[in-house]
């Protein structure tokens, strides 16, 4: 039975032929390199395929004795490992809140890939995404849906015009769809049918994405602890995410109208 492993090492003595030696050792043990890339400064990561665990154990024992490298990770690959090898760097994760992941606008490709992998999973997942206007929140959520080959449904949104859905039709009820809502728009809506629809979707075993999750949970039965993932997207690493301006902009928009395209919030 073929098993997959993630192998990461830090270069201690960078000499010509080092990678070739490691690749040759893997070949002799009949372990296949699936993907290889630098994942951090001075570090290289690999996804490996092996026919049996004995080959992996022998490789780990030999590699741990090499003076030219230091073994840093050797495990069954996690999602962050796969993306690190694919994109050449790790996703930044909050040290205190392990379900919070941080991105900047230059990371949109990595963010889309990350969300698409979550979308491909079965069952309930509640994802919150924080960020200031026009940073790339909505476009990333939609692009990830396309990558995951999933249909996206806006329950509430400020994309092109403000949207507040009160009912769904036909295949929109499918558990394979991605349901997206804007926490500020939903919180401010006075449409009870909309709130009932949101509650119904929250109970479904499917993927839900909430923009502005902190505003969504205000005066509701939900809390931030209910979220499986919190994504923070910024224009720059030191940008502060605040809601005062966003709430003011929402209040100035006419529900159902274009508002001079002021409703765009990508």
Report on the structure:
The strands form three sheets. The protein has a seven-stranded mixed β-sheet with strand order 5-6-13-7-12-11-8. The chain has a four-stranded antiparallel β-sheet with strand order 2-3-1-4, with helices on both faces. A two-stranded antiparallel sheet has the order 9-10. With 266 residues, it is of the alpha/beta class. The protein contains nine helices and 13 strands. Residues 72-255 form the DUF3388 domain. This is DUF3388 domain-containing protein. InterPro entries: ACT-like_dom_sf, DUF3388, UCP021288_ACT.
Order of helices and strands: EHEEHEHEEHEHEEEEHHEHEH
The global form is elongated
| Overall radius of gyration | 22 Å
Percentage of residues in strands: 25-35%
Helical fraction equals: 25-40%
User: Which structural category fits the helices and strands?
Assistant: alpha/beta
Described by strand count, sense and barrel closure, the largest sheet is: 7 strands, mixed
Number of E strands:
13
The first-to-last residue Cα distance is 45 Å
Protein name: DUF3388 domain-containing protein
InterPro entries: ACT-like_dom_sf (IPR045865), DUF3388 (IPR024514), UCP021288_ACT (IPR016784)
Domain DUF3388: 72-255
Organism: Chryseomicrobium palamuruense
Question: Keywords, please?
Answer:
266 residues; alpha/beta; 7-stranded mixed beta sheet; 4-stranded antiparallel beta sheet
